[in-house]
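Figure caption, in words: inputs first, then the predicted bound structure.
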Amino acid sequence: MTRLRKTLGMVFGASISLFLGAIVALAEDIAELDAIAAQLLPEKVATAVAAIPEGPRKLLAMRSYLRFSGKLEERWSWTEEEIAAFKGTEAQQALQSEIDAISADFAERNRGYGIYVHSRVRSLDTQIDHWNGNDSVGVSGAETYDAWLKSGTASTSPTDPEALARFETWLKGFTPANRAHLAAPGLSRHGRAQAIDFQITKDGETVAGTDYDAIETEWQQGGWEEKLKASVTAAGPSFSGPLTSINEPWHYDYAPQPGMVGATASQ
Ligand SMILES: [Zn+2]
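Bound structure (zinc ion present):
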């Protein structure tokens, strides 16, 4: 009995120290990732990494940033000030008039149905909130984090250039089998008015929205993917899509030709 209790006590004690060890390692890994981000990424990008509390989601975002390096500046989402400055500009009016033309064409072809667009530019803070709460990011991040811990590039000194290089090479080369449905915070084309999500409505209710689990029931069975595409093709010359790298029948990229902005505004 005494011996059993002693054994149980030892097992229990060992479990606790293992558990505590895991927590300490996790906190260390998170601090390590922030330190690595500060070394490898531009300051505003490293600040976004620091705003992601969970290590796996942090690491997955860093993978995108490292793979995007060189193009980070031109893609980085607008600040709240830049979003406010966009309002009322010729560029914003040109975007809105194409959205209006697509909506009108769609209503004409599909009596009783309409298009809903949430046209506010998606700020960096909003993207960080989505990233921190999204399930697909959690799954993909966990897979990446687990692989990282096993990669041999995890327990390195964050300031050692060779260790940094090994980390960067490994992370850029790793592709998780489970993909996140979101662009890493700051990289969404929605963050600088370069993408629009079109939803289908009827009498104020959503008929086909932005729910991945309802793509087949809402978009495919309803035929809305083709119907939306027809109206975008007819009336939205600056739009291309829908997105297929991740299946999003509602998402169209927006890239106005130079000169088109002025032409639309003068009409
Ligand atoms: Zn979208």
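The longest helix spans residues 2-40.
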